[in-house]
Design goal:
GO molecular function (chains A, B, C, D): chorismate synthase activity
Largest interface: A-B, 110 and 111 residues
Low-confidence stretches of chain A: 363-368
Strand order of the largest sheet of chain A: 1-2-3-7-4
Pfam families (chains A, B, C, D): Chorismate_synt
Oligomer: homotetramer
Largest sheet of chain A: 5 strands, antiparallel
Shape of chain A: globular
Number of helices of chain A: 8
CATH topology of chain A: Chorismate synthase, AroC fold
Family (chains A, B, C, D): Belongs to the chorismate synthase family.
Distance between the termini of chain A: 34 Å
Radius of gyration of chain A: 22 Å
Cofactor (chains A, B, C, D): FMNH2
Order of helices and strands of chain A: EEEHEEEEEHHEEHHEHEHEEEEEEEH
CATH architecture of chain A: 4-Layer Sandwich
CATH superfamily of chain A: Chorismate synthase AroC
Helix content of chain A: 25-40%
Number of strands of chain A: 19
CATH class of chain A: Alpha Beta
InterPro entries (chains A, B, C, D): Chorismate_synth, Chorismate_synth_AroC_sf, Chorismate_synthase_CS
Structural class of chain A: alpha+beta
Chain lengths: 368, 368, 368, 368
C-alpha cells in the first residue's frame, strides 16, 4: 500500500526507472482461468511504444514484456503475475548534462527535496517510461473485462493544442498515429506538429476514455466512488493536470434542468453524467477526459537553477515527444481498465445477496 | 479499507444517512498532543451548515458535533477519535413520495441496482448530509497542519453559473454568504440566485482550494502522487464532476515554453503547475479546482421511471440548495486537509534519513 | 488502515477508552439485506459483560449497544454501520493513584513512551474495555456467516491454570459461567477461583475457538493466508501471548507420517491441521487456540517505577477479573467471525470463474 | 493489498512458483540513502539455500538475486526496489506423478478447490520456494534496522522433534548446519536426522527469533499491535502452526504475580512478556517462537484421493527437507525484520510531536 501499488482487490505494483536494468510489475488478484499470453499484452505495449511515428520520440524501446509467473498452461492461476521489461536503448550519456540542473516543469527539484538525491538518468522513476508496465497490467484487466462482461475501453485524442476532434469514430482511432477519432482533423494535426517541431516546442492535449457495457453497480461510496477511484488512477499518469467525467467543467455553467439525464422505460436519454451517479456506474458509457500538460523537455532555452541554487540555462536535447498526450492514450485506457477491474471484484465480494439461494463459493467442486 | 475509509496513515472512516439516527466518523492516526476541542470543529461545521443564508437550503440542521474518544485533558492521545452528530430536524414524510421513484440525476437508481434496495429517506447514504463528518474530521487535520507547519487552506467559490470571480481576496471570503473572494461580484450573485429561485432551477459552480506553506516533498509516486490522492479525495465529494490543478484543462492549448514554471535563485516565478511537480509538492501553493454539477433536486418537473420501470413525473419539493457548490467550500477544504495530512505523515514515516544522526523515535524519553 | 481498523473488504474500525464518553465502531462492507437488530448484538455483548458471575469483575457495565446507521427497515443496506456504547459506571477516582505509576505487565509504560502521555483512567485505550465493540461487530459477521453459509463459531475455555477440559460438549459451554465445555471440571474450577481470590492473584487460560461448516477455499496466499489473518486478529486481543491451529505447538515433536491428515473418498480422517492447508480452508472445522496471560491487575504488592523513574510499590485495587481468559471467549469468537467474513468476501470477489456463464453482478435486476 | 503484499508503509509484494520462470518481489517504502547491494542480500539467501548440508534437501537452487531498480550509485533512492531470482534446476518431470493426486498435508486439494485448477509442478505457488524472496526483502529491512537503530535479529532452532536447545549462544548459531544455539545438542541432532532419513519420515521443529535493541514504542493498537502484526507475518510462513511471544503457551498455567515483569530504575528484571506490552515494544528483546509442522513430503506411503475423488496411494519421492524447520530460520528472521521495519516507519509517521520545535520534513534542504 505504499505509493507504487494501486487497487485493493485487483492490485498493480510497479518498479523501474528510465535507465535502470528493467521495469516490472506484479498484478495480484486476477481471477483464475483467464487465458493470457505475452502476445496479448504486447498489442497495447506496441501502441504506447515510442518511435512508431514521426510525431513521437525517436527513441527506440522494444518494450518486450516477459511474464515470469502466475500463468500455467496458458491461463491465470489466481496467484500473483510477475512481469518484466528489460531496458535496452538507454544512452545514459544524453542525460549527464542535467545531473546538477533542475529542469523547469520536471520533477528533478521535488525528487531531490523529497529523497535527498535522485537517479538523474532520464528522469529516473519520474520518467513516463514507468507507464509501460501500467499498459501491460491494464491489458490483463482489459481482457478479463471484455471476455467476462463485454466491457470495451476506447481511448482517443480529443484535442491537441487548438485542434479538437468534432466527431468520434472508434474505428478511425486505430488508423492514424494520433489516435484521433476524427479523420477530418488529421491534416491539420500533421501540419501543427511539423510546425511545433520547427519551433522546438511542445503542446498539451486532451485524451478521452470511454468504457462501454460497464455493469451497473460498480463503485464503493462514500470515498471509493467509481469516479473518485478513476480520478486517482487517471491523475496518477505523468503530465495529467485535470480529470473530468461527462460534461466535466462545463457543468459549472449548466442548470439542473439541463444537466440531469432523464430516465425512461427505454433507458437514459442522455449522458451528461458520464455514466456515474452517486459514485456508482449507471450502466451507461463511462466517459472520462484528462488534460495533459505540454512536456517541459523542449529545445527552447529556459532559465533555471542548479542543485546548489545558482542560475543556469537549460535546453533539453535528448529525444522527446512534442506532445506526450498522444502516447498517453493507451496508458489512460490501461488505468481505466485497472480501476474498473478492481471495482468489479470489490462489488462482487461485498454484494452477494443474503436472501435467495446461498451464493456460490467460486471454484468449489461438488465433491468439495 | 472498504469504501467508507480514506487515507492510509491519517484515516477517516464515516457512517450515517440523511435521516438516520446519527452521523459519525473515526479519525485514526492523528499525532498525540494536539489541543483540540468540539468548538474547534464547530467553526467549520457552522460554515457548512444549511439554513444560514437565503441562498442555501432552509432546512435547519444543528450539526452539533460530540467528541466521544481520543482526547484527554484537551489533547489528542494518539488513539482513534470518535465523533458523532445526532440528526435532528428530519421530516421523513417529505420524502415518502420518492420511495418508488428514481429521481433523475440522483443515486436512487444506482443504489437500488447495486444493493438491491435503498434507504430512500432524503437520499440516505447518498445525501450530501454525510459530508458534515468530513468537515469535522478535516478540522482536526487543518488545526494540525496550521499549528505544526503553518499550512493554511483557503477555499472559495471561483465561479457560479456564468459569474466568475476575477480577483482573489482571502479576507473577503469570510465576509459573504457565497464564500466569494471578489466583492465586486456579490451583487450579481445575489441577483442571479434570486432569479434562479423563481425558476425553481439550480446551477453549477466551480470551487477553488488553495493551500499555502505546504512543505516541499509531499506525495508518494508513482500512484499515490499528491495530485492523484487529492483528485481522489476531491472527486469523492457529492456533485463533483471534475478536478484540476494549476492551469487545469487550459494546459490542453498551452505550449511547453509557456507552461513550465521557471526556477530562479529567488524561487519560482509562476505557478502554472499548481504546486505539484512529478506528483510531489514543490513548496508553492497547492491550487486545486473542482467543478460541481447543478443539483437535480429542483421543482422544474422532469420525466423519470418508477422502480418497476414505468414512466413517471418527478418534482423534488423538499428544501434544497439551488447551488450545492456554495456549501461545498468548507467540504473541499476539509478533503484537502485530510489528504495533505495523510501525505505528510506518510512522507515523515518513509523518508527519515539514513546518513547523519539517528532519526529520533518520537515520544521516547531519555530514560526509555 | 491505521491501527484501529481490521479487515480489507469487511472492515471494523473502533474507538473508545475505558473511562471516556463512549466506545464505538464502524462496520464497513457488510453485504446488504441482512436482518440485524440491536437485540442480535446484545446477546454476545451480554456474554462478555462483566459482573455476571462471581468469577469475573464486579464492575457493572451495561454495554447497551445502539446502532446509528446502516440499517433500514431492519436490514443492512450495504452502507457503513455505526454503533456506539455509552460508558456508564466509570468511577474515575479508583484510578487516580496510578496516574504517575507504571503498573508492571500493563501498557502504562509503553503508551507513555510511544505517545508522550496517556489517558491513565482505567488503562484508557489499552483497557480490554474496547473489546466490547469487537463483540458487537463480530455479532454482525456471525449472523451473516450462519445464515448464508451455516457457519457456526464455538468458543470455550479449554484450560484455566492447571485445569484442562478433557471433553468438548458445545451445549455445555452455555450452561456455566466459565464457558467450559467439560461439566466434570466445573467443581474444580470453582474451587480454584475461590482460592485464587483469597490470594489476591490471577491466572492464565487457554481459549479454543472452533468454526464449523466453513466453506473450502477461504484464504489469500501467500501473506494473507487464512491462518495468518486469524493469527493477526486473535493476537490483537488483550492479554493473548500465543495463537495456534490444530495440533499447534505439539507439531514440534510430531513425525510427518503422524501429522498429515489422510484424505479418503469419504473425506478427511483426522484434523491435525486445524482446517487450514497451505493457508486455505479445507472444509474441515477451523480449530484455533489462544493463550491468555494472567492479568497484572492484582492485589499482591509489586515493585515498579514512577514516570519520573523512581522506585515505587503498586497494588492494583479496582475491580478486576482474576482470569481474563474467561470473558475472552466471546471476544475470540468475534475476532474469528470478523476474519472469516473478510476472507469470504475477498474470496468471492477474486474468484468468480472465467469460463462458463457470466458471473452474476449481484443486486442487478433484469431491467438494469 | 491483495494477498501477496505484506506491510503498510514498508511493503513487500512477491510472485513466483516453484517451477515457473522466476521468483520476484517489490520492496516499496524503503527510506532513501541506504547502501545496499546484491551481495548484502545474498548472505541470507545462501543461509536459506537448499543443498548446503546433508540435513536439507539436495536440490540445487542457486538463488542468485538480481536487483532491477530502486538503487542508484549503490544507495536506495526511495523508489520501489524490484528483485528477481531466475529458477534453475527445476526437473519438472519429478512432479508429473502428482498432477492428479491430492497429497495429504499439502495444499493440492485446497488450491484446486479455491482456484479451480493449480500449477501442480512442485507445489507451484504453495511451495516454500517463494520464501526465497521474503529472505531477500527481509535483508533490506535487516540492514536498515541494524544501521540506523542497531537492531539485530537472531533466529535459531530451539527444538527439533524431542531435542531442545538448553542454552542460547548467538555465535554458535552460525557455526552449525542446524542453526542450533546449543553446541551440546549437535551430536544428538545429527543422530536423529540420520535415523529419520532411514525411516523416510520427517519431523517438526520450533524456531525462536530474538530482536535486540528494538526502540520502545513500535506497534499500532488496537488491531495492529506489534505482536499481532508479527503473528500475521510469522504465521504466513509455510508449515507454521503456532506463534507465541515471551512465555507463550506457558502463561496458561502462570499466576499474575509470577508473570508480570518488574520495572526498576535500572530497567526490567525479567522478560516474560517477550518485549511487548499492550501491543507496543517495551525496549526489551522481542522474543517470538514458531512451531513448524513436519513436512508431508515423505516416502512413507500414505492413503489419499485423486482429483476425481478416487482412492490412491501416495509416496512423495522428489528431494525434500526432512525438517523444514531448519531452513525456516532465515525466513523467520526476514519476516520479523519486515514487520519491525513497517512498524518503525508507521510509528515515525504518526508520532511526530506537536509541541516543541517543528518536526523536520525529511530530505528538505535549507534552500528548499
Amino acid at each position: 500500500m505504499s505509493g507504487n501499488t494501486i487497487g485493493k482487490l485487483f492490485t498493480v505494483t510497479t518498479f523501474g526507472e528510465s535507465h535502470g536494468t528493467a521495469l516490472g510489475c506484479i498484478v495480484d488478484g486476477c481471477p483464475p482461468g483467464l487465458a493470457i499470453s505475452e502476445a496479448d499484452l504486447q498489442i497495447d505495449l506496441d501502441r504506447r511504444k515510442p518511435g512508431t511515428s514521426r510525431y513521437t520520440t525517436q527513441r527506440r524501446e522494444d518494450d518486450e514484456v516477459k511474464i515470469l509467473s502466475g500463468i500455467f498452461e496458458g491461463r491465470t492461476t489466481g496467484t500473483s503475475i510477475g512481469m518484466v521489461i528489460y531496458n535496452g536503448d538507454q544512452r545514459s550519456k544524453d542525460y549527464s548534462n542535467i545531473k546538477d540542473l533542475y529542469r523547469p516543469g520536471h520533477a528533478d527539484y521535488t525528487y531531490d527535496q523529497k529523497y535527498g538525491f535522485r537517479d538523474y538518468r532520464g528522469g529516473g522513476r519520474s520518467s513516463a517510461r514507468e507507464t509501460a508496465m501500467r499498459v501491460a497490467a491494464g491489458a490483463v484487466a482489459k481482457k478479463y473485462l471484455k471476455q467476462v462482461h463485454g466491457v470495451e475501453i476506447h481511448g482517443f485524442l480529443s484535442q491537441l493544442g487548438p485542434i479538437r476532434a468534432e466527431t468520434v469514430d472508434f474505428e478511425q482511432i486505430h488508423q492514424n498515429a494520433f489516435f484521433c477519432p476524427d479523420a477530418s482533423k488529421l491534416e491539420a494535426l500533421d501540419a501543427y506538429m511539423r510546425d511545433l517541431k520547427k519551433q522546438g516546442d511542445s503542446v498539451g492535449a486532451e485524451v478521452t476514455v470511454v468504457a462501454t457495457q460497464v455493469p451497473v453497480g460498480l463503485g464503493e461510496p462514500v470515498f471509493d466512488r467509481l469516479d473518485a477511484d478513476l480520478a486517482h488512477s487517471l491523475m496518477s499518469i505523468n503530465a495529467v493536470k485535470g480529470v473530468a467525467f461527462g460534461d466535466g467543467f462545463d457543468v459549472v455553467n449548466q442548470k439542473g434542468s439541463e444537466h440531469r439525464d432523464t430516465l425512461t422505460p427505454q433507458g437514459f436519454t442522455s449522458n451528461h453524467a458520464g455514466g456515474v451517479l452517486g459514485g456508482i456506474s449507471s450502466g451507461q458509457d463511462i466517459v472520462a477526459r484528462i488534460a495533459l500538460k505540454p512536456t517541459s523537455s523542449i529545445t527552447v532555452p529556459g532559465e533555471t537553477i542548479t542543485n546548489s541554487g545558482e542560475s543556469a540555462e537549460v535546453i533539453t536535447k535528448g529525444r522527446h515527444d512534442p506532445c506526450v498526450g498522444i502516447r498517453a492514450v493507451p496508458i489512460a485506457e490501461a488505468m481505466m481498465a485497472i480501476t474498473l477491474m478492481d471495482q468489479l471484484l470489490r462489488h462482487r465480494g461485498q454484494n452477494a445477496g443474503v436472501s435467495g439461494p446461498t451464493p456460490p463459493i467460486p471454484g468449489q467442486s461438488p465433491a468439495g
